[in-house]
Amino acid sequence: MDKGSSSQITAHHLTGNETTNQSNSGSYNALYRMEFPLFNGEDARAWIRKCTRYFQMIPIPEDEKVPLASVHMERRAKLWYQGHVEKRGEPSWAELIVAILERFEDLDHERVVAEFNKLHQETTAHAYLQRFEELEAQMLIFNNNLGEEFFMMKFISGLK
């Protein structure tokens, strides 16, 4: 399926929603502008959350979820997916989620941990705090047993 097909799938469902959401035009307008997230192999969990939210907002038949998601893959994610389909056939949406996490989550975890460990204040305290909080949230996704004391010590040690 090519990029043009994705628009047709989305347009098909949006057209269907248009007739059912006539009385609630605010919701329809928000749905109409909602773009499907791109996946390049980074931050797999965030991409899956965005896709899940998209599917909650715009009802997509189960058998169209994987084709829609696959045309929104780029670079290494696209190459991986093509190889995955060649070896195993097209997965269901649930199977795709498992396969993506198996393939890409460890890389995300390693990247996040490495970046968190190297983090220190380079410019303003506000910029450091902002990046620290982003990485802290990602670290907690991978290990929710990390305590407040751990993060406090890391934050203080990274200040200028």
Question: What features would you highlight for this structure?
Answer:
160 residues; elongated; mainly alpha; Retrotrans_gag_dom; Retrotransposon gag domain-containing protein
Q: If you had to describe this structure to a student in words, what would you say it looks like?
A:
This protein is mostly helical. Helices cover 74% and strands 0% of the residues. It has two domains: 3-104, no CATH class; 119-160, no CATH class. The chain has helices spanning 3-20, 25-33, 44-57, 62-70, 75-88, 93-118, 125-142, 148-158. α6 packs across α7. Residues 1-29 have low confidence and may be disordered.
Assembly form of the protein: single chain
Give the percentage of residues in beta strands.
under 5%
DSSP strand count: 0
Shape, per Cα inertia axes: elongated
Number of domains: 2
What is the mean pLDDT?
79
Radius of gyration, CA atoms, in whole angstroms: 20 Å
**Major sheet description:** none
Instruction: Kindly name the structural category.
Output: mainly alpha
Termini, distance in Å? 51 Å
Give helix and strand order, one letter per element, not per position.
HHHHHHHH
* Poorly predicted parts: 1-29
Q: Count the DSSP helices.
A: 8
Helical coverage, percent range: over 70%
Domain Retrotransposon gag: 68-160
InterPro entries: Retrotrans_gag_dom (IPR005162)
Organism: Sesamum latifolium
Region (Disordered): 1-24
